[in-house]
Design brief:
The chain has helices at residues 39-48, 58-61, 78-85, 120-129, 141-146; strands at residues 13-19, 24-26, 71-77, 97-101, 114-116, 134-139, 153-158, 167-168, 179-186, 192-198. The strands form two sheets. The chain has an eight-stranded mixed beta sheet with strand order 5-4-3-6-1-7-10-9. It has a two-stranded antiparallel sheet with strand order 2-8. It is 19% helix and 26% strand. Strand 3 (71-77), helix 3 and strand 4 (97-101) form a beta-alpha-beta unit. By secondary structure, the protein is an alpha/beta fold. It is globular.
Length: 204
Amino acid sequence: MDRPNIGVALRKLVYFVAVTLDGFIAAPDGSFDFFPLEPDLASYLVAEWPQTLPTFTHAQLGVASPATGRFDTVLMGRVTYEPGLKHGHTSPYDHLKQYVFSRSLAPASYPDVEILSGDPSSFVRQLKARPGRDIWLCGGGQLAGQLLDELDELVLKLNPIVAGSGIPLIDRGFDPHRFTLTSTRPLAGGVVVAHYTRQAGGPA
């Protein structure tokens, strides 16, 4: 079993993601272009969370290069990674260390990211014990489900959209975990950024 370094503050795993009112982060095919990047949301992300914007958008949005902030690592599943590939973006977050969890993608075919096929939870525990900044989980639902016990914070860009179906925020069997709401930030375009932290005392 992985053991944390005694006396060293562990890195946090933060699930920062856009979500609909009914709890979906993407369409059934994995696309998420129905989440509009309204000017007020773009300005907020540039000011507060610039590292969560794809590297290829930085020049257009006026993000300093390289983008700075609380993260140095991003985790994503295959379905989250693939939409960018369709547009030729093999390294969407080139300013971060990128890990993609997949059992079907061949690592040699995607040299710009590190493809992993092992247990995500074990890997994240190892990452947390290493020196570094916090870790961003950007999707998707299945990976978030596997990592639910490791999540320290949820930062949800709650969009005024009802999707009806799609990829859920957390894809996992019934297993309640309680988080504490620490802040909300309503934006003019209707998005509310809600920040939750894991409640002390256990997973549920």
